[in-house]
Specification:
Layout lengths: L3 E8 L3 E12 L4 E5 L7 E3 L2 E4 L5 E5 L5 E7 L5 E9 L3 E3 L2 E14 L6 E3 L1 H9 L5 H20 L5 H5 L2 H7 L2
Parallel strand pairs: 1-10
Antiparallel strand pairs: 1-2, 2-3, 3-6, 4-5, 6-7, 7-8, 8-10, 9-10, 10-11
């Protein structure tokens, strides 16, 4: 049976949510999890629905980076695109993983249309409210620059993340 992990996801302005996910791949440079049934509110990029309640998400967690990558879907399994979440360094203690959101995210639609940075207003508000210190703001700026360069070079999302679609993730779920 596929092991589970508990991801303690802290958002400084909203508290901590714990997600129980299936650990599909456990390598030093990438961990792949499956959240089989997203229970949050529908998510949008602009007016485009990118994630619906009941949808699966395949997550690529990079322990050595300050970002995660979600392969987002609708409840019927339709792939909508790539969601890059910026976060503080992740701490892994056995099946419990702890991370703190850094507010800024990037959305890359599956149809190949231009991507966009999301929640810049939330980042600015967090900085203004003192929820994000200078060190974490520097992490955000460095990750944003690195991701922008990788998007320009065509190397983000990474190849292994592009190759593991929902069908493959479900196949690994045993």
């Amino acid at each position: 049976m596929t092991p589970s992990v508990r991801i303690h996801y802290h958002r400084p302005d909203r508290g901590t949510t714990v997600f129980v996910e299936h650990l599909l791949l456990d390598q030093p440079d990438v961990k792949v999890t499956l959240l089989a049934d997203y229970q949050g509110e529908d998510a949008y990029a602009g007016d485009r629905l990118i994630l619906s309640a009941g949808a699966p998400i395949v997550w690529f967690v990079f322990p050595n980076l300050c970002r995660d990558l979600g392969r987002f879907h609708l409840a019927d399994g339709t792939f909508t695109g790539w969601y890059t979440n910026l976060r503080a360094p992740i701490r892994m203690k056995g099946p419990d993983w702890y991370c703190t959101d850094l507010f800024l995210d990037h959305w890359q639609p599956a149809d190949g249309s231009p991507g966009e940075w999301l929640d810049e207003d939330e980042l600015d508000a967090a900085v203004g409210a003192g929820l994000l210190d200078a060190a974490r703001f520097d992490i955000v700026q460095a990750e944003r620059a690195a991701i922008t360069a990788e998007l320009t070079a065509g190397t983000w999302p990474p190849a292994h993340a592009r190759e593991m679609d929902l069908a493959e993730a479900r196949r690994l779920l045993k």
